[in-house]
Write a structure and sequence with these properties.
The protein is an alpha/beta fold and 282 residues long. It has a single domain (2-281), classed as Alpha/Beta hydrolase fold, catalytic domain (Rossmann fold, 3-Layer(aba) Sandwich). It is 42% helix and 18% strand. The protein has an eight-stranded mixed β-sheet, sandwiched between helices. Strand 5 (93-98), helix 3 and strand 6 form a beta-alpha-beta unit.
Length: 282
């Protein structure tokens, strides 16, 4: 079911389905997509689980206050998602994160470890080992203060071709990638004011690096059961980022797929099976 809820006068859209008396899985989406990225996976899990996926402010079907009206930072969005969790009375759940969902979700987990029954991580990095080719390219522009190259790169990311590139690069079979996914992202991005939001949050990504040690300490201290599913051809987050979770976790299983950044487009059925087995085991 498609629903909305008001938080701080912002309407937050979310998808919710499944069995409320079963284990809850909260899905936090990546960039530049929305809860739509989990639609097929949620449908595969809803017969046995309670599944919920919100859209962040400025993303998908949630409200999009301007950058003057709302602080688009990873910290602030994580605080708002905290309020979303409380408003829906989610007391304990499995947290599924991808890309931007990683730094948002890990902020929530470190603040409120008692909520987390386990983690399911898909191409979401908290280790320096996980920087892929594109991430290193962006880092080079920043290090060299190459504003022109950086702006050109960011502009490309918001074009239809740039969005398609993020979906199909590294995929095993590009024909399995639903064009509706990146066309929908493109439609969302071209609404008034949305590119400003996209760029503001993109520029805030550097705030996550200083949190890596804190998040790694959370894993060491609380040892949440963790399932890592990873598109090993991801140009943003490389497979060493997946393997690095072994450094801090005792109860972790890692599955690498012949896919890219949005590997769920190709492997949502396989990930649904692994998720089910993981939760039943734990």
């Amino acid at each position: 079911m498609n629903k909305s809820i008001k938080i701080n006068d912002i309407s937050i859209f979310y998808r919710e389905s499944g069995q409320k008396n079963e284990e809850t899985i909260l899905f936090l989406h990546g960039n530049p997509t929305s809860s739509h990225m989990y639609k097929s996976l949620m449908a595969s899990l809803e017969n046995n689980y309670h599944v919920i996926a919100p859209d962040y402010p400025g993303y998908g079907f949630s409200d999009s206050p301007s950058t003057k009206e709302f602080e688009y930072s990873f910290e602030n969005i994580s605080v708002l998602m905290d309020k979303f969790i409380d408003k829906l009375n989610l007391n304990k759940f499995y947290l599924f994160v991808q890309d931007y969902g990683g730094p948002i979700g890990f902020r929530i987990a470190t603040r409120r470890p008692e909520l987390i029954k386990g983690l399911i991580i898909q191409n979401a990095n908290i280790y320096v080992e996980g920087f892929g080719e594109w991430a290193l390219e962006i880092g080079g522009y920043m290090q060299n203060n190459d504003v022109e190259a950086m702006n050109k790169y960011k502009k490309h990311l918001t074009t239809l071709e740039g969005l398609r590139e993020q979906y199909v690069t590294g995929s095993k079979e590009a024909s399995l990638i639903d064009p509706a996914s990146y066309f929908l992202d493109y439609a969302f991005l071209n609404r008034p004011g949305i590119k400003d939001i996209f760029l503001t949050l993109f520029d805030d990504y550097g705030s996550n690096f200083e949190k890596y040690e804190e998040w790694q300490n959370y894993l060491k201290t609380y040892q949440p059961p963790t399932l890592v599913v990873w598109g090993e051809n991801d140009k943003f987050f490389s497979s060493p980022g997946a393997e690095a979770y072994k450094k801090d976790l005792k109860n972790v299983e890692i599955h690498l797929f012949d896919g890219g950044h949005f590997m769920l487009e190709e492997y949502y059925k396989e990930v649904a099976v692994l998720t089910d087995l993981f939760i039943q085991k734990n």
